[in-house]
Amino acid sequence: MNKHLRYAAVILAVVVAALSWSCKKDSNNNNNSGGACWGENWLIGTWEGTTPSSVTPFANTKIRIVFNNAVLKYDDQVAGGARKLWAYSGTLTWDVGGAGQWSMNFSVNNFPAPDYNVIIYECMTPNAATQVVDNISIRVADTVQVNPWHSVDLDWGPAIISTSTPATSFELYGDIELDFNGNIQRADYVPNESTITMTKK
């Protein structure tokens, strides 16, 4: 099974109980209108962020992601609910304006195979809840060995969404590696501690 399918099934199984409890707890809250899948268009455009100064190497490095278009890849049922997944085409730029500026295209055609140089957005709606669970997965790397060789593996979510208004920022965690002829430099970004905040421009 594709790793993204396994991931979606596990996430839904884990959160469905929590969401069910949350919905029962908040059933009398008139301010909770419930979440909605934001669809593919909320990501279209330019997003920028800067790596935190507290994490080395690569402190204060600017990242830009331009999302040009999306294709719906999955619209199905998984364990406990419904799921939609879009893959995107666009360009990720590392060290924007810096001496090490590097850009790589990602494409809708790279999902589900070969499943690299791809960015996906998942929206999962558990059957027992009015909220949704969203996730973004970024897997972008050099397609040929260069010096340095770049690898960007970042994620957002799973995030419990209780609003129909799309986010204008999100926080990425994961790791970024640069390989200088075998000398690997890596920075790890930790959820709720040292994430990279991406903001829509």
Which secondary-structure class do the elements indicate? Answer: mainly beta
What average pLDDT do the residues reach? 86
Strand content: over 45%
Low-pLDDT segments: 1-33
Cα separation of the termini: 37 Å
N-to-C SSE string, H for helix and E for strand: HEEEEEEEEEE
* Number of separate domains: 1
Helix content: 10-25%
Any idea what the radius of gyration is? 18 Å
What is the topology, as strand order, of the major beta sheet?
Answer: 1-2-3-5-6-7-8-10
SS elements, strand count: 10
Number of helices: 1
Short overview:
With 201 residues, this protein is mainly beta.
Structure description:
By secondary structure, the protein is mainly beta. It has one domain (3-28, 43-200). The chain contains one helix and ten strands, in the order H-E-E-E-E-E-E-E-E-E-E. The protein has one helix spanning 3-25; strands spanning 45-50, 62-78, 81-94, 102-106, 118-126, 132-141, 149-161, 169-180, 183-189, 196-200. Strands 1-2-3-5-6-7-8-10 form an eight-stranded antiparallel β-barrel.
Which secondary structure elements does this structure contain, and how are they paired or packed?
Elements: H1 3-25, E1 45-50, E2 62-78, E3 81-94, E4 102-106, E5 118-126, E6 132-141, E7 149-161, E8 169-180, E9 183-189, E10 196-200
Antiparallel strand pairs: 1-2, 1-10, 2-3, 3-4, 3-5, 5-6, 6-7, 7-8, 8-9, 8-10
